């Protein structure tokens, strides 16, 4: 595996979805991320790998983790982050996506965009001559999934054979899990209420990936069935940004989906809990959220190391210095 990962070259690549990344490419990203974390956090090394480089951060939606992890991570590597809200740059309104993409290509080295519509990212990517990174769209949240799998690799020592259970909304984070899990040998059990299933085309693609990689994919509307025999219970907000008017209906439809110790009783004895945050009480109770099984805060920190790993991989020729982690 080490030899095949050594030869992976991601320089110049955009990352709109992990659907476009192979098993080896995702492993390489996790290896570089874990390597940077080890060298910078634990060995206290200074690595100005992005010195002289700048990232344009376009945010149509607010964010704590995506903004902080990118700004602090990019700066830690010697680069310069430029944060742009809709007040600064209004994609497709005061300037077309095409023009913005071309202008930014001449001014910075990489763009991270957090947008409402995934098509905005595709438009940017089509016209830009620099890498475009998806900081979240309505369809996918790839940088969250990299952090989640780094967190699980650290906790369990390897990923192959783990079972992850998603109990919640069929949203962008779930879509990204579905495009990634099988490539890492991870089984996926998904419970969503009726009417909140993941997109049909993404289910179809995930089924193909499961077949190809020999993993299990289960879709149900029963949270307890999804939790059965699982290593990791995962949920996310039930009401995403832009869905506030549906809140009352959603809270009713998601009744019985709160993750509690009772949900955990269906899982394996070593089960853990993930949530990409921000979290609301109805999604998971305090007993689980603040327990030793909860990995939510290391998971949030790993947003920083994985965005650093991704940026370094697409902007430089960096080769990891630490031994390959076990997958």
Automatic annotation (TrEMBL):
Subcellular location: Mitochondrion matrix
A cellular-component GO term for this protein: mitochondrial matrix
Keywords: Amino-acid biosynthesis, Arginine biosynthesis, Mitochondrion, Transferase, Transit peptide, Urea cycle
SUPFAM superfamilies attached to this UniProt entry: Aspartate/ornithine carbamoyltransferase
Chief location of this protein within or outside the cell: mitochondrion
Top-level lineage group: Eukaryota
GO biological process, one term: urea cycle
Domain Aspartate/ornithine carbamoyltransferase Asp/Orn-binding intervals: 161-313
Pathway(s) it belongs to: Nitrogen metabolism; urea cycle; L-citrulline from L-ornithine and carbamoyl phosphate: step 1/1
NCBIfam families with a match to the protein in the record: orni_carb_tr (TIGR00658), PRK00779.1 (NF001986)
Record's subunit section: Homotrimer.
Protein name: ornithine carbamoyltransferase
Encoding gene, per UniProt annotation: OTC
């Amino acid at each position: 595996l080490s030899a095949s990962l050594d030869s992976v070259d991601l320089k110049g690549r955009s990352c709109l979805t992990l659907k476009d990344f192979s098993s080896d490419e995702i492993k390489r990203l996790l290896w570089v991320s874990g390597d940077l974390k080890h060298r910078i956090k634990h060995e206290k090394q200074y690595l100005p790998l992005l010195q002289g480089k700048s990232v344009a951060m376009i945010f149509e939606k607010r964010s704590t983790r995506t903004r902080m992890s990118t700004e602090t991570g990019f700066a830690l590597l010697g680069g310069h982050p430029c944060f742009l809200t809709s007040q600064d740059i209004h994609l497709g309104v005061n300037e077309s996506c095409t023009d913005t993409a071309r202008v930014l290509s001449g001014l910075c080295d990489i763009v991270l965009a957090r947008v409402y519509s995934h098509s905005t990212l595709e438009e940017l990517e089509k016209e830009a001559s620099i890498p475009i990174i998806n900081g979240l769209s309505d369809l996918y949240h790839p940088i969250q999934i990299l952090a989640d799998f780094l967190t699980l690799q650290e906790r369990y020592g390897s990923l192959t054979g783990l079972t992850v259970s998603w109990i919640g909304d069929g949203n962008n984070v779930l879509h990204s899990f579905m495009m990634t899990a099988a490539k890492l040998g991870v089984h996926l059990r998904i419970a969503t209420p009726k009417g909140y299933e993941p997109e049909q085309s993404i289910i179809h693609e995930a089924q193909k990936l499961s077949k190809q990689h020999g993993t299990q994919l289960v879709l149900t509307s029963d949270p307890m069935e999804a939790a059965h025999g699982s290593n990791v219970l995962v949920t996310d907000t039930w009401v995403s940004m832009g869905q506030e008017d549906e809140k009352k209906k959603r809270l009713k439809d998601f009744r019985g989906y709160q993750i509690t110790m009772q949900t955990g009783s269906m899982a394996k004895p070593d089960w853990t809990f993930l949530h990409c945050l921000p979290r609301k009480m109805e999604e998971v109770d305090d007993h689980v959220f603040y327990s030793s099984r909860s990995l939510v805060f290391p998971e949030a920190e790993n947003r920083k190391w994985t965005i650093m790993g991704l940026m370094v991989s697409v902007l430089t020729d960096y080769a990891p210095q630490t031994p390959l982690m076990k997958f």
